[in-house]
Structure formats: C-alpha cells, structure tokens
Amino acid sequence: MRQFGLIGKTLTHSFSKTYFSKKFEQEGIADCSYQNFELPQIQDIDSLLSQYPDLKGFNITIPYKEEILPFLFQQNEIVQAVGACNCVKVIDGKFYGFNTDVIGFRDSLQPQLKPHHTKALILGWGGAAKAVAYTLTSLGIDYLVVSRKKAEKTITYSDIDKALLEQYTLIINTTPLGMYPNINDAPQIPYNLLSSKHFLFDLIYNPTQTKFLQLGAQQGSQTANGYDMLIGQAEESWRIWNTL
C-alpha cells in the first residue's frame, strides 16, 4: 500500500485528504491511501518515515511550506526561486521538494484576468504568497505586498488608498483571515473604494464565499476563491508522485 498525506500544524480544514480519498475511490486506485499528519513542530518530520515506511509523498500546508526547506535533499527550480515547498516526493528515504501552488494558482487565475489587471496587491507574505508572487511575475503582472510591516516592495494596510486602488485592480488574499471557523474575519482594506474594475482572488476555499469576497462583491467586484487552485495543485502533486 503506497502511503501519501498532508503535513501541517492544524488540519481540521484540510481539503487534501477528502479530495484524494474520493479520487482513489472513483478511479479504482486500490493500492494507495492518504491521511493527515499533524506535526506540533517541523522537526517531527524525521519520525514520519520510521512510522510510515511506505510513505511515497506528501503535501505541506500552513505553517511549514518554508520550514520544510532544510529537510529537503533536493529542491526543484521553482522551490529555489519561490523559497517555499508544498509537495514532497520521497525517494529512498530522501525528500525531493516541489511547488505545485504555482501551477494551481496560474491555471485558475489566468483565464479570469481582464486586460486592465496589470498590477496586483498580495495580502500577506507566507509560503503561498511567494508562489503567488512568482506566478504574477511570470505573467508580467507587477505587484506590491501588503503586510503589517513596511519593507522593500511591501506596504502596510494603512497605505492602501483610492489612488493606489486605481492602479492595483487585482487583489489576492493569501492570509488565513476568513478561513473556517473564523468566517467573519477579513483583511483590513478599504472595501468602499472597490469597483467593478477590481478582481478579488482568495486562496481560501472554506467557506466558498469569504468575508473578503463578500465585501468585494457588494462593490461589484469580480471574485474567485481558491477551490480550483487546490484541485490544480493536487493533480500536479499526483503527477509528480507518479511520473517524476
């Protein structure tokens, strides 16, 4: 039995186990199983192989997409460029790192872009945000990061004003704000300044319509959640585990 799974700190919100279990059942894949591995700290990953000798690959979620890097035997070029890994293939007990968030995000975002979506605001700067930034650069979309602390190419939430939003019409939430069960949370941006020109993309998929997306829709903005991105990254993980 080939074993796969998801690594994170708290996995009650996990999409992956449900998705892969259903995939295995529907496609008649009887020799594979997928389960959640909640790790209090990333160092606990060392014990996984001894507990699960048939582990062939795993996905990684908050907060370990960056913390996993020192444990990787090899990183592909996207992981090296992004500085975050969300997919590992296990070969002879060694961890090979990949980033499938980039492909999942690109394939779900690109078909929905309008010609005026040439500049983006990235809310948050975790592992997923770095994959978003890499993708935007590859698509020729300039971006600014919005965080609590100002830095190079990074502004704070209080810096977002009407003039800025006239230019930056694509807004991507990579923070966990609004994720179930905290469904009333939302990034603190001036929603009243949004319009039908704006496109709000939320990497969160549960709930399907976060407060961030609701407040944007009320202003007539285009919205999308992270469900299609998750499917895309999951299928790319499966391809990596089985073909590379």
Automatic annotation (TrEMBL):
One of its GO terms (molecular function) is NADP binding. Keywords: Amino-acid biosynthesis, Aromatic amino acid biosynthesis, Oxidoreductase. One of its GO terms (biological process) is shikimate metabolic process. Pathway: Metabolic intermediate biosynthesis; chorismate biosynthesis; chorismate from D-erythrose 4-phosphate and phosphoenolpyruvate: step 4/7. It is an enzyme of class 1 (oxidoreductase). Its EC number is 1.1.1.25. Residues 6-88 form the Shikimate dehydrogenase substrate binding N-terminal domain. It holds the Pfam family Shikimate_dh_N. It comes from the Bacteria. This is Shikimate dehydrogenase. It comes from Flavisolibacter tropicus.
